[in-house]
Each structure stands twice: as structure tokens, then as C-alpha cells.
Amino acid sequence: MMGRQAVDQSQLFYLFNLEERIPADHLLRRVNPIVTWVLAGLREKSAPFYSEIGRPSIDPELMIRMLIVGYCYGIRFERRLCQEVELHLAYRWFCRLDLDGKVPDHSTFSVNRHGRFCSSDIFRQLFEAVVKACMDAGLVKGEGFAVDASVMEADASRYHGQAPGEIDWSAPERQTRAVAEFLSSLDDENPDADRKLPKVISPVDPCSAWIAKANKRVQFGYGLNYLIDIEHAVIVDVEATPARTYDEVAAAKTMITRTEERLGLKPDRLAADTAYGTGKFLGWLIGKGITPHIPVWDNSARGDGTFSRADFTFDRERNVYICPEGKLLTSTGRVHDGRTILYRASTRDCGSCHLKPNCTPNMTFRKVPRDVHEDARDAARALMGTPEFDKSRDERKRVEMRFAHLKTHHRFERMRLRGLSGACDEFHLAAIVQNLKTLANHIWRPPDAMDAAMA
Known about the structure:
Order of helices and strands: HHHHHHHHEHEEEHEHEEEEEEHHEHHHHH
Shape: elongated
Structural class: alpha+beta
Helix content: 40-55%
Mean pLDDT: 85
């Protein structure tokens, strides 16, 4: 007999305990003790950004908890986040809201998030507190780090890019935080950097970079830079940059230095891909005592069949190159472009050489460039193929998996906020959530297992 749901016998009173409705193995229940600990000093740190007069504002702890929920479950729009917290019992419980607790209006939530929180470094402090909790739990070994970057599409249309000189920055629609941040960065930029403006920028988010990466479509984007401890793939630092390779390499230096200063962590070795294998960066790593397990970025090989730089032998004592015929290539020591020293052969030696068609068929003499950091490049080359290098190459995939999980499980593929500060806030929240999940999965045990252990 098919039953029928009774709808006319509703109870007048209910006994409802929100605590009992949340499963013991729910993700938010597992991360709640950690979040409670890291938020313990939040009120004192955020107090300077709140006025003593006026109406009471949103509790900063409530905002943080709501944002953690949002970035954990891919709900990054304020309006939808407020709606989900209103309806979802687990979200209410995690945000410490009773059934009749008032959820902030989405507009008030946005104003507080982009106002007070944008003026503070509260997300950075929370991130470092979570990393320290991971260190206390033994998840950070501090021996091997890996660094990499992933492109996140900016909240800017790829069809509306313009040349910088064609944009009227005084127009009313350009009076935004992202544009003001971009113009301020131009005023503060070091004049000795000799950095040129890109040919195409976005009028709505000019800090983003015009890029095509990994065979994807051309788009405006930001670089999400992660520095992880290889042992358990804990993110020990995060940095937001425009999606450009030279900014990513500079971000790696910033993260390594900051991690040592703030967390007391300095790796013995660093794993990265070829984009980080420049002579300057390798020299910087070796100067800091960090072994670079990084493939060397080398474009010296020639595709026309003529001799490449590898066919010439460098004599360190005499500071000369020796060609296959035993002739010397000398240098004046002048550094070109801030990074290259040229070694030149004699016109007389090259003119009478029978190997000239295979060496320098289109010039009267041969030139061989040498990077000023070539010693560091040679040291990195010597490590390639060793068991330690191969192990680091395999472990480097863990940082790539962090990006894959972020885009797949957390649905983070396109930016929600504009400007470099907005990207910084979003990336810190993403890293906080990923580290919280790693820590929760490490320390959490099922209730039955805990009872058995206590018995």
C-alpha cells in the first residue's frame, strides 16, 4: 500500500538542538576548533579599524567565519553567501548563529569586507596563524620547499583591452579602487626599474596582466604564487602578482625571505620548474645556502646545426673560452644588459679556420655569451639527474595539486575581486582554507576511534 505524507498534523512546539544536527565528521566541525583558536585574538587586532561611536558593526569573527565557509565551498559572491548561511544549518552552526540569529545583509557585508578589512592585514595574520598551527602539529618539516604559480582569470573582459594611452582615467566610471591602486603603483614605482607599461591593459582592472598560458585563451589574469613545504603540502606563503613570469620569480624571493623572517623557516632545497631556472634566481638561492633543484633555463642551443655554447670549453683560471680548434675567446669584462659577458674570438683565427661554416658562417668572428651567474647555473646543472633531484621533481607535483584542488573542489577559477589588493585577499583566503583542511584531516579522528584510544 502506498503511503501518504501527513501534512495536517504539524507540531506546535519543537525540541531542536543545532549542535546535534551537525554530523561528527562534517568538515566544518573538524576545522571549527582550529578556527576558534586562530580567531582568539582577532577582536583585539581588528579593534583599531572600528569606530567607538555609531551603530554596532558586524562582528569581525562572524565575517571571517562566513568567508571561510564561502571559500571552502566555492561561494564567493556576498549575496549568495549570505543566502546560503541563512538556509544551511551547518553554515549557521559554524558561524555561531542560532536558528533565529540574524545573518548580515549582503550590502553591509560587502561594505565591511571592502572597507575595514581591506585597510588591514587581518587575512595575512590569519594565514600565518594557521601555518603556525600546522607547524605545531608537525606538518611542516622545513627541509624541502616547492614554489610555483598558477594563472587565475581576472574579473575583466578579454574583449575590452586597450592601450594605456587610449584610456581616460578621469572618466567617472574609472573612479574605482582597482584603478586608483594601479595609478598609485605608477607613482610609487622605482624609476631605475625601467619597467614599461604593457601594450594592452584592462580599463576596469589595470593591475591584471594580458597573458596566454598553458595553451589557453588570451585573457587578463593574476598569478597565484604558492610556496609549500613538501612533506604534507602545507602552504607556508602566498603572494599575488600580475600573471607575468618575471613577477612570479620575484614573488618567490619575497616569499622565501618573508617565511624566514616571520616563521623562522628556511629550506635546505627548493624545487621549481624551468621558469625559475634563471641565472639570477639560481645565484640568489645559492647565496642563501639553498640547494636549487630547478632545471636551468638555457636557450643557448642552436637549431641551424652550428656550434652552440656547449661546444666551447670555459677555462676558469684564465677566464677564456676555448673553441673546438683550441683557439681562445677573450672578454673585456664588460657586462651587457646587466647580466651577460661576451667572449670574442680573433678575426684572424676565425678567418682561416676550416670549421668556420659550422661555427660562425655569417660573421667574421665568433662570440659566446656567458651569464654573470653562470657558476650558479653550472651548479644547478650538476644536480640534474641525481636521485635527490629526481625525488624533488616528483615532489614538486604537490604544489601543482594544490592549484588543481583549488580550481576543482573550491571552484576558484576566476577572480571575484579586482585590483592587486583584492587578489591578495582572495589568495590568502584560499590558502587559509586549504591549510585548514590539511590540518583538520591530519588531527581529526572518528569518535569511535577516539573512544577506543582513551579506553
